[in-house]
Amino acid sequence: MPQRSSKIPRDAVHHPLFARFYARISVTADLRGGVAAHREELLAGLFGRVLEIGAGNGLNFAHYPAAVSEVVAIEPERTLRRLAQEAALRADVPVDVVPGAAEALPVKSEAFDAAVVSLVLCTVRDLPRSLAEIRRVLRPGGELRFFEHGLAQGRAMPLVQRALDRTVWPLLFGGCHTARDPLAAIEAAGFEIDGYRRLRVPEHGPTLPTSACVLGTARRPALKE
């Protein structure tokens, strides 16, 4: 069972207005924006014990393959956590939704075969510390599956993203930062990236500050013999 840390308050994140907005827009993105297919790709082939960090309203739960024996889903925001708990009851694999923060995961070291981050690294308060925690809880050789938005390629949009991050965007969108580089951060945390692909979300329609996404797999290095 997860071990809850006394260092992190039960509601480490509290964005009730954004949580309600996100709960609606994420369902629309899954149904009309093609995000459900990306979730399916993200989770394909997983097995054993999986830790999902920032589970939101639990939209990933329906896509976990049968080889997954247990999902421990961390969600710090109360409104989203309640929705995730409801989604867990409908899942085909066992899902335990618990409070916690990415910077101090309430679970034992080297306890999981895989970890999943899905549109969450943009919001964590301390990105290096969060990734160090994910590395801690993975067994040697364990996988990190990631589907994240971040810094766009090119010249114009990155300037827009950085300007937004310094002004109103995090305040309006639950602490989200648009100009983080998830690939660079994952590598800097000591993971080996197995493969990834860049994609645009939504695939059709206007380009948003959050449209530049990357989906892939990294790995905690195995212990050397």
Automatic annotation (TrEMBL):
GO terms for biological process: methylation. One of its GO terms (molecular function) is methyltransferase activity. SUPFAM superfamilies: S-adenosyl-L-methionine-dependent methyltransferases. Signal peptide: none annotated. Keywords: Methyltransferase, Transferase. The keyword Glycosyltransferase does not apply. Residues 51-145 form the Methyltransferase type domain. Pfam families: Methyltransf_11 (PF08241). Transmembrane segments: none annotated. InterPro entries: Methyltransf_11, SAM-dependent_MTases_sf, Thiol_S-MT. The keyword Zinc does not apply. PANTHER family: METHYLTRANSFERASE LIKE 7A, METHYLTRANSFERASE LIKE 7B. This is Class I SAM-dependent methyltransferase. It comes from Streptomyces sannanensis.
